[in-house]
Amino acid sequence: MLNKVDKIINDFLFDLENDRILNLYKEISSGKKLRAKLILKIAGDTEDACFLAAIVEMIQIASLLHDDVIDDSDTRRGRSSINAIFGNKIAIMLGDILYSKAFYELNSLPNEVSKIISNSVTKLSIGELLDVELSNKFNPDKDKYFDMIYKKTASLIEASSYAAAYIGKKDTHKFALYGKNLGLAFQIIDDILDITMDSKTLGKPALSDFKEGKTTLPYIILYEALNEEEKKKLVSFFKKMLNTEEKEWILYKMKEYNVIKKSLSIVEEFAKSALLSIKEYKNNDLEKIITDMVKREY
Ligand code: FPP
Ligand code: MG
Fold first, then answer.
1. What are the DSSP calls for 8-39, one per residue?
2. Which of 29, 35, 67, 187 to mutate to test the pocket of ligand 1 (most atoms within 8 A of CB)?
3. Ligand 1 in contact with 25 (CB < 6 A)?
4. Does 84 or 2 have the greater pLDDT score?
5. How far apart are the first and last CA of the chain?
6. How would DSSP label each residue in 148-163?
7. Phi first, then psi: what are they for 79, rounded to 5°?
8. What is the overall mean pLDDT for the chain?
9. I need a surface site. Which of 16, 90, 163, 240 has the fewest CB within 10 A?
10. How far is the CA of 243 from the centre of ligand 1 (A)?
């Protein structure tokens, strides 16, 4: 099924009659295609569903090309990022090409679908802006974190689920809720893995979020648990290149206060809510997407 989606993306790019774009696109490592999988599982393997899945994957790839420029990241999915290989200008323009072509193709789908998807891309961009602004200083505010990850990550997954349900003639609101909670759980897991996984498995340096200025959920939970002196110490580590001893202090304190366990129980809550909203459909594949995600290695 995903092969069909890859073929549609290649056909879209072929339409552009520019070999350079095809060659640059080949340098992007393909990811898990969570959004495409989700769309096909919800809507079924129809032509419109594959078309939507290809469009959403192109938007996702475009946003990551821009995100790696914004975050100054050299790696993506274990390979050199496009900005690292070809520079920021090429990465931004390739993102713009994928993104505008996706929007052009989106016009062929029902109005309800194109409205919901395009609106979510505005949210996604606002989420990225919030992420950048939140990284100016240590953020102890959970609500700000949840609002940012909802917009940055969950909004496109929510919209993809809604649109897929629309195409598959299912309850759009129930599936939107499923997608929203799945998206929130997904981003928190990503934020946990940055702390618990080694850099080789992660495909990027471990513990890099805090150095980049991202006060993710585990750091907010840790901050809440620390005493005043320790709080100051944690804040002083924000955005710094930490030595081994400093990194170990963070990990030790996270263990002492059960931070990862507490973060995972929030993931479980979102996962449970996601499953609850689509319970009546008894769709094992959609349930498996959630359980597989929650069981990713910590
Ligand atoms: C990854 O976050 C980034 C996103 C989920 C969204 C990025 C959105 C934009 C750049 C705006 C939209 C732009 C277009 C062209 C549609 P992260 O940095 O937390 O994750 P990472 O560790 O995978 O980099
Ligand atoms: Mg990034």
1. HHHHHHHHT--HHHHHHHHTSPP---HHHHHH
2. 67
3. no
4. 84
5. 29
6. HHIIIIIHHHHHHHHH
7. -120, 170
8. 93
9. 240
10. 28
**The two three-digit tokens of residue 59, written as one number:** 């938007």
Spatial separation of the C-alpha atoms in residues 28 and 20, rounded to whole Å: 13
Ligand 1 within 6 A of CB of 65: no
Q: What separation in Å is there between the alpha carbon of 126 and the centre of ligand 2?
A: 15
pLDDT computed for residue 60 by the predictor = 96
- Among 71, 93, 128, which residue has the most ligand 1 atoms within 8 Å of its CB, making it the best to mutate? 128
Ligand 1 near 36 CB (within 6 A): no
Q: Read off the pTM.
A: 0.94
Q: How does residue 207 score in pLDDT terms, banded at 50, 70 and 90?
A: confident
CA dihedral 39, 41, 47, 48 (to 10 degrees): -30
Residue with the smallest CA separation from ligand 1 atom 16 is 63
Q: Which residues of 220-251 are buried (b: 16+ CB within 10 A; e: fewer)?
A: bbbbeebeeeebeebeebbeeeeeeeebebbe
